[in-house]
Amino acid sequence: MEQIIKIIFVDIVIIDYVKYLHMSNYPEYLDGNVTRIISFIVFGIVGLSISYPSLNIAIAFLFVDFAIRYYNPQYSPLARFAKRISNDILKLKPNPQYSPPKRFAILIGFIVSGGIVTFNLVHALFISFGLKLLLLIASGLQAFVGYCVGCQVYHILSRAGIVNRSSNISSFTNKLS
C-alpha cells in the first residue's frame, strides 16, 4: 500500500507538477521584504484558522496562493499585496534574495497547506492541527526573525547533492524519478 501511495503521490503528482512548473519563467531574485510581509500574512491567516476553525477556508486560499506563487510570484494575490505594502506604504528599499531556496520553501508551503486542506476534508483534525502549527512556526520564523526554514532544508539538500544550486529544483525532481 505504501508503494502505491508513493507511486501515485510522489512519482506522478509531485514530479510531473514540479517539472511542469519548472518550465515557467521564474525570476532569479525575489524581494526579501515582500517575502517577510507575505510570511506575516500567512502567520496571521494560520493563527486565525487555529483560533477559529470556521476560517479553514482561508487555508485553501493559502494553498492556491502557494501554487500561484510557485508558478510565478507576479500572479500571486499575496505577493502583489505584499509588494504594494513594501513599496508604496512602507517605502522599503528592495532586498534581492536568490530565488531557488525561496521557491523551494514555497513548494513546501504548498505541500503543507495542501495537507491541511486534505486532512480537514477527511476530518483528521489532529493531523491538520499539527500541520497548521508547522506552518505557523515556519511563517513566524520568517516573518519575525527572517529565518527561512524551507531555505535551510534547500541548502541541506543541496549539500547532500539532491538539489542543484544552479537550478530551480529541477535536479531534485530528476533524482526522485
Structure explained in plain terms:
- The protein is built from 8 helices and 2 strands; from the N terminus they run H-E-H-H-H-E-H-H-H-H.
- By secondary structure, the protein is mainly α.
- The chain has one domain.
- It has a two-stranded antiparallel ribbon with strand order 1-2.
- Helix 3 runs antiparallel to helix 5, helix 5 packs antiparallel against helix 6 and helix 5 packs across helix 7.
- The C terminus is likely disordered.
- Low-pLDDT segments: 168-177
Helix content: over 70%
Q: What is the number of helices?
A: 8
Task: Count all strands and give the number.
Answer: 2
Main beta sheet strand tally, sense and closure? 2 strands, antiparallel
Q: How many domains comprise the coordinates?
A: 1
Overall structural class, as computed from helix and strand content, comes to mainly alpha
* Radius of gyration over C-alpha positions, nearest whole angstrom: 16 Å
State the end-to-end CA separation: 19 Å
* Spatial sequence of strands, sheet with the most strands: 1-2
| Share of β-strand residues | under 5%
CA-based shape: globular
Mean pLDDT: 86
Order of helices and strands: HEHHHEHHHH
